[in-house]
Specification:
This protein is mostly beta strands and about 220 residues long. About 0% of the residues lie in helices and about 50% in strands. It has a four-stranded antiparallel sheet with strand order 1-3-6-5, with no helix packed on it. It has a four-stranded mixed sheet with strand order 2-8-7-4, with no helix packed on it. β7 and β8 form a beta hairpin. The protein is elongated and about 80 Å long. The N and C termini lie far apart (about 80 Å).
Length: about 220
């Protein structure tokens, strides 16, 4: 069957993918009236200041173009909002357009932390994390360090300026000192990320079963 719609939003959601080196990005949503009754729209309103919006009339009463732009500076990660336009109709009285911006971080550490088995470690263990440079500028990493003794770290460049692997070697018997935050740190040539930190966490030791108690009859 055919589902009739009074109007079409193409695409139904404005998604802005912003590269780490770009300050902003924009997307366009077209609004098309499929009825004989003219559709008049008010000025669009955004519920999130991270988005600016502009409405352009292609054909009065029939077709419109909605341009959504990200307002710099945008934080890394995902930001969502909604654009509202009041209409000359009673149903719907308001057209809502969801919008989302995905800001890609310039430097990504995967995974974002290191997890160790419960200590003390029965055997030496080497863990690794991947560092990915999403910027168009080449990246340099240096001075890997761990803030506890006997644990060593090194960085291997997998793809020059773009992809790296950090290796952290834990000795036999290692255990995170109680109450201390252990982390891997290394310096970066990216001015926005001069020092990167990777927390190191250790699983708690399983609780021992309660000791049996002697019962006297």
């Amino acid at each position: 069957g055919t589902v009739y719609r009074a109007f079409d939003l193409i695409p139904p959601m404005a998604v802005l993918n912003i590269p780490p080196d770009a300050e902003s990005a924009s997307g366009v949503v077209t609004i098309t009236n499929n009825t004989e009754e003219p559709l008049l729209l008010s000025m669009p309103e955004s519920n999130n200041r991270a988005f600016a919006v502009e409405l352009k009339t292609n054909v009065l009463g029939k077709g419109y173009q909605l341009t959504v732009s990200a307002v710099p500076p945008m934080p890394a990660g995902s930001v969502q909002g909604q654009i509202s336009l009041h209409t000359s109709w009673t149903n719907p009285a308001v057209i809502s357009v969801p919008v989302a911006a995905n800001v890609q971080p310039a430097v990504m550490v995967i995974p974002s932390y290191i997890t160790l088995a419960a200590g003390p470690l029965a055997n030496p263990v080497t863990n690794s994390v991947a560092i990915q440079n999403n910027s168009t500028n080449l990246l340099q990493l240096s001075e890997p360090a761990i803030n506890v003794p006997e644990v060593t770290a090194q960085i291997k460049e997998m793809q020059p300026g773009k992809s790296f692997t950090a290796l952290v070697a834990f000795p036999q018997g290692f255990q995170v000192p109680p109450g201390q935050q252990v982390e891997l740190t290394f310096k970066s040539s990216n001015p926005k990320y001069p020092l990167l930190k990777v927390p190191i966490m250790q699983m708690p030791r399983p609780a021992l079963p309660p000791a049996p108690t002697d019962r006297q009859s």
